[in-house]
Amino acid sequence: MISSRRATRLALAVPLMIALGAGMTACAPAGGDSSADVTELTLIAANSPWTKGLETLAVDYEEETGVKVNLEFYGNEQLNDTLKVKLNAQSSDFDIYAYQVQDVMREFSRNGWLADMTDYVSSDPEWDWDDFQSSARDAVTLDGVVYGVPVMTERHVMYYRSDLLEQAGIPVPTTLDELAAAAAKLNNPDNGFYGIAMRGAKVPLVTQFSSFLYSYGGDFQDEDGNATVDTPEAIEAYEFYGKLLKDYGPPGATNMGWPEASAIFAQGNAAFYLDADSQAYTFLDPANSAVVDTVAYGSFPAGPAGSHPYSIVPQTVGINEFSKKKDAAWEFIKWVTNEENSKKLLSEATVPVARDSAWADDEATSGFPAGLVEIVRSSEGTVGHDRPQLEQVALAREIVGAPAVVAIEGGNVSDSAKQAQTDFQKLLDGEK
After folding, report:
1. What is the pTM of this model?
2. What fold characterizes domain 4-154+313-377?
3. Which residue, 34, 191, 226, 256, has fewest beta-carbon neighbours within 10 Å?
4. For each of the chain's 432 residues, which pLDDT tens digit applies?
5. For 155-310+383-431, CATH number?
6. For this UniProt entry, which residues form the secretion signal (predicted)?
């Protein structure tokens, strides 16, 4: 179990700018600079557990190499605004940046703002690109080009009250149908207790609905970029998601994102909560959770097509295409993401890194709940995206989330899905 002190360390830091040490070792594939001559680099990133862990590693790296890396940390929105201004001006005053893959990678790569890192990641067998989780490698690859190294991962899991299941003689659900049956049995709205809590607001729910969609055999779009949100599989997934919240969820579910839904579970007022594994620490903090001793973790339950939860990369680190120090930038990225330092980040900063070897190490994972570690180690059939894949992803989420809201409200899901299909296809066609 993680202490409240350790859980607190994982909270996102306030925006700050700090200068710390970093550096480089041997040269990688040609990037337009002589890395031996580089004495300073700059990295821009959003506040996260990874950037907190980076502070310590960067000091170690500076001591090894003498090369200084200036680290600039921002909030997510501030980061994106800063990056777009600088990159649109083809600025070379920073060399490395961490970014949210599914929100900006398509836009940034189309604009020529991200350096092609394909040769870099394949240049050193000892560094071992194949040691990174396959869904993470897929997430940072677009049209066969690698645009970054994943530094954090996140997957969809099932949180549940072990005490209540045991008292009721209910086995841990392994299928979505079993989940629905268990939620129905434990649902007690007259006493302010609900079978399940999940996101129900139109935009926030999309990422969590995605695992249901995949496990029903659907997706938001096909390989050719055509919308697929009105297929029989998609409609069934919408209806199932909506029924869970309509029949066994809390009132006002359509106004709930993760803060509201997770709070219900943390307060001890729901039997199940399905969301990202990164929220585990919320439930393990005695200051904010009434379920510290009763929360347990299960793999995402299987639907008609099996269990296919998302496993995404919330932060990856790439190289500024306009940097004059690409080789040196790669040397720093390679060092900070190697096996040794990945294990250090996992064990000392509880950063959910992307390397399989780190998760396989019992010592490195000792600070994580055993149930979560087992889920990560046994992850199969995961999908590397949790939302539509296009540049206008925010607008797409507005569109594809609508049928789920209709389902929660008990409306005509089929008609809503058809309208979403038409609107989403127009959006996709516009990008083509």
Report:
1. 0.86
2. D-Maltodextrin-Binding Protein; domain 2 (3.40.190)
3. 191
4. 344 333 433 333 333 333 333 333 334 444 556 566 888 999 999 988 899 889 888 888 899 999 998 999 998 889 999 999 999 999 999 999 999 998 899 999 999 999 999 999 999 999 999 999 998 999 999 999 999 999 999 999 999 999 999 999 999 999 999 999 999 999 999 999 999 999 999 999 999 999 999 999 999 999 998 999 999 999 999 999 999 999 999 999 999 999 999 999 999 999 999 999 988 888 999 999 999 999 999 999 999 999 999 999 999 999 999 999 999 999 999 999 999 999 999 999 889 999 999 999 999 999 888 899 999 998 778 998 999 999 999 999 999 999 999 999 999 999 999 999 999 999 999 988
5. 3.40.190.10
6. 1-30
